[in-house]
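ingest -> fold -> write
write: protein_1
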Amino acid sequence: MPGTLPAGHDPAVRSRNRRVPVLDHVVTTADGDCPVTLHLPDEGSGPWPAVILYPDAGGTRETMRAMADRLAATGDGYAVLLPDVYYRTPGWAPFDLATVFTEDEERGRLMGMVKSVTAAHYRTDVDAYLDFLSAASEVSGDAVGTTGYCMGGRASLIVAPHRPDRIAATASFHGGGLASAEDPDSPHLRAGEIRSTVYVAGATDDGSFDDAARDRLEQALSAAGVTHTIETYPAAHGFAVPDNPTFDEDAAARHWAALETLYAEALPRA
């Protein structure tokens, strides 16, 4: 059954060298076994509201795990699920974000990985993630938040209309392809099905979410009556992720504050 653990799977706790407790799990999806980590607050006994964190094009790595740690410890705490979105490519080699866009071969490999995860994949995967979170003793309530970066920002907006019954808060940071006129899977086309509160932060230097796309998304969300905020940070694409060459400390701090406010307002606590 999608969302369940393989028989006999015993999650390991990895917290000795981390700021917060982390549980290793495998979530069974429609396409196979997806490794995930569940990051928990280091204070309190829980359970906590759940948030799904979608990584950027670099995929799950230490930087993303550190970001999940920080999100788990934000405010009154969250149970943060970080999936390996590239699990359909077993054994994929990590990327060096400092050089990947200057090396043609690595850039090509990265783009291939990004394209390997389709909108349909995000939808079927989130069904399994939500089933998993429903069964997790560390998680409270049915309402779930999402956040994502770069391609993960698009994923966050793709799953919102797919599961309006569960997703209550949706965030996207320097996400691309959010409102494409040419893409039949562009998230803005299903704005009428979104029931979550939406926060989108683009960047002044980001061709993947230009003024035309921003206006298109704004119009779609407004017409659908979606509670939303769209902002443009004075930064470049990748501003929120520390191992990205375009990381911007001020913009990253602003993004953390925005997430704390969004989830405090939109994610109920038991």
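write: protein_2
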Amino acid sequence: MGDKHLSTQFDSELRILSGKMMELGGLVEAQVRQAVGGLTRAEAPAGEDVLAIEIRVNAMEVDIDRDIANVIARRQPIARDLRLLMGISKATANLERVGDEAVKIARILRSMPLPEPGCCVLPSPEVQQEAHLALGLLRKALDAFARLDIASAVAILEEDAAIDREFDALMRSLVTCMTQNPTVVPSGLDLLFVAKAIERVGDHAKNVAELVIYIVKGADVRHTPFDRVRSAMR
């Protein structure tokens, strides 16, 4: 009975930690959504809101790391339980970095100069599409982590390539636009930095998906070609 009671307590602690990480994921998702909203220029950039969320995100990261350290010290977990705790810790770090990218986006858009009338139109809609893909990937990665779903995690690794292609195409469009009209270079460079930050959001989502594979299978698939990962997970 004693061992069963301890096991139940440990399972509860793991669920609480996982829940905190998911809450953090929701916060950084909202951060990115608010930050990229400045691309439309329909309303004032939400820089202050993004920064306010960042304070909460940083505090939650510290709180989660402290709780994980306490659980490891008290429970001395092994095998999958230990991998889960390590996975939550690493996923938390990746999510905090997503928040950092959101802050970067908000700050750039808040100060980005508007191009003069008649200039080459900068590809803002393409950046919005890239942001839509990255946010979708982040949501899927969080869902896959919550369910520890290997199939979804593998699919996310493949989808990340779509964001990379979107960024490459966008970079070519921006270079063409700036070459045709040098007056848009300041805004074009800002938009390029925004697009790069969005691409990194997708990269962090992919990292979270890789952690799902690590937790369930015990396989570290970082830096592994996608074809090899897909074959190994069949």
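write: annotation protein_2
Residues 15 and 34 are 29 Å apart (CA to CA).
Helices lie at 2-36, 47-75, 79-111, 124-147, 150-180, 185-217, 226-232.
pipeline exit 0
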